[in-house]
Design a protein that fits this description.
55% of the residues lie in helices and 0% in strands. It is mainly alpha-helical. The chain has a single domain, classed as Orthogonal Bundle (Helix Hairpins).
Length: 131
């Protein structure tokens, strides 16, 4: 199993190879850097919206389906089909978060551990929110 650090590195490498890491945000001026950072975060929200749409379209939250798959192509060694559904969108959310963290020099694994350690200290349903 990969660690979060390993996944973060792999996501960065794949995205760079596919042309998604063409800008070094550290080299951008203030407003351009902020716009780039906001865009990265907004892309995470689009994946959340896509997951919501899967549910609205009647797909179960644990359903993965392959709309472009032809039954006779299975097992032929052809390129993998694109998975769709809430699980795929959740994966995209994590992938985009890993990519943003990597681009910004954030050790996401370390901050997750720190957050979990803090969350243990919080009371039952802290904050008084209903949900």
């Amino acid at each position: 199993m990969s660690t979060i650090k390993e996944l973060q590195q792999r996501v960065g490498e794949i995205n760079a190879a596919n042309g998604w890491r063409t800008t070094n945000e550290a080299e951008l001026d203030g407003k351009a850097r902020v716009n780039s950072q906001i865009t990265r975060l907004a892309l995470i929200t689009t994946e959340v919206a896509e997951a919501i749409e899967e549910i609205r379209n009647g797909h179960a939250v644990d359903e993965t389906y392959y709309p472009d798959a032809h039954p006779f192509a299975v097992g032929t060694g052809a390129a993998p089909f694109k998975p769709e559904g809430v699980p795929s969108e959740l994966a995209d959310i994590v992938i985009r978060a890993l990519d943003a963290a990597g681009a910004w020099g954030i050790d996401l694994e370390a901050i997750i551990e720190e957050k979990l350690a803090y969350n243990i200290t919080r009371g039952h349903r802290h904050g008084g929110k209903a949900v």
